[in-house]
Amino acid sequence: MSLQLGDAAPDFTASTTKGELNFYDYLGDSWGLLFSHPADFTPVCTTELGRTSNLMPEFEKRHVKVMALSVDPVEQHKEWIKDINETQNTDVQFPIIADENREVSMLYGMIHPNADDSMTVRSVFIIGPDKKIKLTLTYPAATGRNFDEILRVIDSLQLTAYQSVATPADWKNGGDCVILPSITSEEAATKFPKGFKEVKPYLRLTPQPN
Ligand code: BEZ
Question: Which atom of ligand 1 is nearest the CA belonging to 43?
Answer without folding.
Answer: 3
